[in-house]
Input
Amino acid sequence: MSCLFCKIINREIPASVVYEDERVFAFNDINPQAPTHVLIVPKQHVASLNELDAAHDALVGELVRRAAAIAKDRGIDAPGYRTVFNTNRDAGQTVFHIHLHLIGGRSLAWPPG
Output
């Protein structure tokens, strides 16, 4: 498979790993937009949110809960953080393997862009 995130999950490409279990993999973004910018991805390849079905509900919940846990570990839970799924090109998705951005550690403007 040529998916960048699958290669990172399989340790074919190095990454700064933040968390890993049997279903979820999290690593620091190589182009951080804030002091904390972690990507939380399922180990199962799913190209975009448009491919999700009811069988993925627990997996998406795990991604969101893991983002909250990492935010707490990083001490950004109380001041605040942002979680973002980008879906397809017009939304800024450049790697077609769903991933949740956890962004924080500074004040974040709205709208984002």
User: Anything to note?
Assistant: The chain has a mean pLDDT of 95.
